[in-house]
Design goal:
single chain, alpha+beta, 80 residues
Length: 80
């Protein structure tokens, strides 16, 4: 998984904003403040693999799971 690349042998990923915890396979395993947040169906709230790429320090993400996109084609000559 690219998200975990170069991070060694980790067991979980914690969102720095929401503090939700995901397994190294992307399954939601912990919800911070669940008592006040409300019931969460963890089996449907795991991480979703999305196509992404970086150009000049900007990260481009396609929000449609499974769809591939060409950032260079989209940017045209702007990337240069």
């Amino acid at each position: 998984s690219t998200l975990l690349e170069g991070r060694g042998n980790i067991r979980s990923i914690v969102c720095p904003y929401h503090a939700w915890t995901y397994s190294n396979r992307g399954e939601l395993i912990g919800v911070y403040g669940e008592n006040s947040f409300g019931e969460v169906e963890r089996s449907t709230m795991g991480l979703t693999r999305l196509a992404c790429d970086e150009r000049s320090g900007v990260i481009f993400v396609c929000l449609t799971p499974g769809k591939i996109f060409d950032v260079d084609l989209w940017l045209g000559g702007f990337a240069d």
